[in-house]
Amino acid sequence: MNYSTLDPICSKSSHPFNTREVKEMLEQLIQQTIDQQNEYDSNKCTQLSKELSQIIKDAMKTLNYERYKYVIQVVLGQCQNDNLMMTCRCLWDIQTDNYASYVYSNTKIFCAVTVFGLFYY
Amino acid sequence: MDDTNDTSFVVDEVSNVIKESIEATIGSQSYQQARINTWTSNIVEAILNSLTKLNKPFKYIVSCVIMQKNGAGLHTASSCFWDNTTDGSCTVRWENKSMYAIVSVFGLSI
């Protein structure tokens, strides 16, 4: 007998993605990592953006969301006028999937991080 | 019968979808502060609609960054915790004389 893998009882996560919890974690991590940067340095920022995305991915694993896949996006740039717009759209299941984002900026650098959590059926 | 195309993320196909959407929306335009909100929304929505028409069993995340060419530096990085055999991503960097556009699409199989 075949049971649908999208059976509503099985498909809901017992520990759904909590935006507030993830956002608090992001604030902490970003402030620890970027607060030390007083100047924009191209080479350092290349390395920093990659490191930050890895650090956040590892931190997401410690939050123990069962059966969730993660996509972490880090955008790091130099503050020079208001000249940047970032937009996102998703095609997903609104009952199980969600995202958390945090934007940090000082006079020299801005950093926008978004974490998406998608439930795997 | 080869059904890997139906269940895996095909980067080339998605890359073409992205390029077409960018060209159609801002291909001939110069940077205008008042319009970038509409442009980024139109680009991501057009891409999402095209991806839906591919009829694949995927959840999608589409993100678009438009930046004026002013000499400022920008870095983007992403890391993903997923199934490497079925999931994938595609990032396209596009530019004209007045602006840069960076569009990323992530596809996660269900």
Automatic annotation (TrEMBL), chain A:
Assigned GO CC terms: cytoplasm; cytoplasmic dynein complex
InterPro entries linked: Tctex-1-like (IPR005334), Tctex-1-like_sf (IPR038586)
Source organism superkingdom: Eukaryota
GO molecular function: dynein intermediate chain binding
Pfam families cross-referenced by the UniProt entry: Tctex-1
BP GO annotations: microtubule-based movement
Family label: Belongs to the dynein light chain Tctex-type family.
Descriptive protein name: Dynein light chain
Organism field: Adineta steineri
Automatic annotation (TrEMBL), chain B:
Any one of the GO BP annotations: microtubule-based movement
Keywords, alphabetical: Cytoplasm, Cytoskeleton, Dynein, Microtubule, Motor protein
Cellular compartment(s): Cytoplasm, Cytoskeleton
Entries under InterPro entries matching the protein: Tctex-1-like, Tctex-1-like_sf
Domain of life: Eukaryota
Major localisation: cytoplasm
Gene Ontology molecular function: any one: dynein intermediate chain binding
Cellular component GO terms held in the UniProt record: cytoplasm; cytoplasmic dynein complex; microtubule
Signal peptide positions (record): none
Keyword Nucleotide-binding: no
Similarity section: Belongs to the dynein light chain Tctex-type family.
Protein name: Dynein light chain Tctex-type 1
Organism: Adineta steineri
